[in-house]
Structures are given as structure tokens and as C-alpha cells.
């Protein structure tokens, strides 16, 4: 049984930093793409970043490029999202996703596994 457990969310002032963690069990994070998405109530789930083994690269949405960094620790089977220069518009529930079935990394429906999410709130 695959489990993804996010942690590290919280409240921070604009300009601050947070690092989210996604610990996986029952799944090897280096076997495929791992990604972070975020969602605000009433809106669709939005892509944030992905790290993909096959392509050996990371991907970022334009809204976070240069401010967020995705990384992984294969020994801990954990993916991280380091967020800096946070803005109020970064406020959302952040979700970890694993195992991209096919195609573009930014399509939520193409991932097999999801965590429960961790809330990030950025105040101005």
C-alpha cells in the first residue's frame, strides 16, 4: 500500500521561507516523477514542481520558478519543496503526487498516488 505523508506546512509572513517534506512508503520515489501541486478552495489543483528520474531534471511552474526548489533524498525516500520569497498568493493546500503514468508532469489526473496535503498560509 502506497502512502505519501506531507509535512512542514504552516503560517509565515511574506518574504519568508518554508520547506515541505513528502515521505513515501510502499513506493520508491526514484522510480518515476514526483511532484508538488497546490489548491485553493474553489480552484483547480495547480502544478508547482516535479522531479523526474527518467528525464533527470526538475520542472517548475512559472509562478514559482526562481523561488521554489524541489529535491529528493533517495535514502530517506522523501521529496522536499523548499519555498523562499513566499507571497500571499502562495497560500494553498500543498499536495505531494507520485508515479506519473504518462505525458506532461503538470496534469494532476496522470498521477497514481496522492498525499493528504499540508496547509501553507502566507500573510502580508
Judging from the principal axes of the Cα atoms, what is the shape?
globular
Content of β-strand: over 45%
> Nearest-angstrom radius of gyration?
13 Å
The helix tally amounts to 0
| Helix-strand category | mainly beta
- The residue ranges in which pLDDT falls below 50 over 5 or more consecutive positions are none
How many individual β-strands?
Answer: 11
From N to C, what is the helix and strand string? EEEEEEEEEEE
Major sheet: size, sense and barrel closure? 7 strands, mixed
Distance between the termini: 40 Å
Helix content: under 10%
The overall pLDDT, averaged over residues, is 96
Question: Could you describe the 3D structure shown?
Answer:
- Helix content is 0%, strand content 52%.
- The mean pLDDT is 96.
- The protein starts with a strand and ends with a strand.
- It is globular and about 40 Å long.
- It has strands spanning 3-7, 10-13, 18-25, 34-39, 46-52, 57-60, 68-73, 78-83, 92-100, 111-114, 118-123.
- The protein is mainly β and 124 residues long.
Descriptors:
single chain; 124 residues; four-stranded antiparallel β-sheet
Secondary structure layout plus pairing:
Blueprint: E1 3-7, E2 10-13, E3 18-25, E4 34-39, E5 46-52, E6 57-60, E7 68-73, E8 78-83, E9 92-100, E10 111-114, E11 118-123
Parallel strand pairs: 2-11
Antiparallel strand pairs: 1-3, 3-8, 4-5, 4-9, 5-6, 7-8, 9-10, 9-11
Amino acid at each position: 500500500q502506497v502512502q505519501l505523508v506531507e509535512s512542514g506546512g504552516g503560517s509565515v509572513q511574506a518574504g519568508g521561507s518554508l520547506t515541505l517534506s513528502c515521505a513515501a512508503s510502499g513506493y520508491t520515489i526514484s522510480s518515476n516523477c514526483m511532484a508538488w501541486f497546490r489548491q485553493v478552495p474553489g480552484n483547480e489543483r495547480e502544478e508547482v514542481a516535479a522531479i523526474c528520474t527518467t528525464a533527470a531534471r526538475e520542472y517548475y511552474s512559472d509562478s514559482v520558478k526562481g523561488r521554489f526548489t524541489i529535491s529528493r533524498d533517495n535514502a530517506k525516500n522523501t521529496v522536499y519543496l523548499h519555498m523562499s520569497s513566499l507571497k500571499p498568493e502562495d497560500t494553498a493546500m500543498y499536495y505531494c503526487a507520485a508515479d506519473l503514468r504518462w505525458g506532461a508532469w503538470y496534469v494532476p489526473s496522470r498521477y497514481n498516488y496522492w498525499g493528504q496535503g499540508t496547509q501553507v498560509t502566507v500573510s502580508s
